[in-house]
Design a protein that fits this description.
The protein has one helix at 2-79. It has 80 residues and is an all-alpha fold. It is found in: Cytoplasm. This is Cell division protein ZapB. Residues 43-60 have a biased composition (Basic and acidic residues). It comes from Grimontia indica.
């Protein structure tokens, strides 16, 4: 009977070892995915920051053009 119990214990130990191995592989896959997503996140953040800077520059350019147009319209009105 003790041989039976020993075989059952061995089977449970083997199942635990197999489960641990699968979980370790899953952890490695998740770490790689996390690194990929972190890298993508950094890239997206940098792109967003660059777009925000470009947007601010374009808004400033737009405001400058509006000022120039207002100035020219004021000069035209003075002539009339």
């Amino acid at each position: 009977m003790s041989l039976e119990i020993l075989e059952q214990l061995e089977a449970k130990v083997q199942m635990a070892v197999d489960t641990i191995s699968l979980l370790q592989m899953e952890i490695e896959e998740l770490k790689e995915k996390n690194e990929t997503l972190s890298s993508e996140s950094n890239t997206n953040r940098e792109s967003r920051e660059a777009l925000e800077q470009e947007n601010a520059r374009l808004k400033a350019d737009h405001e400058a053009w509006q000022q120039r147009i207002r100035s020219l319209l004021g000069k035209i009105e003075e002539v009339e």
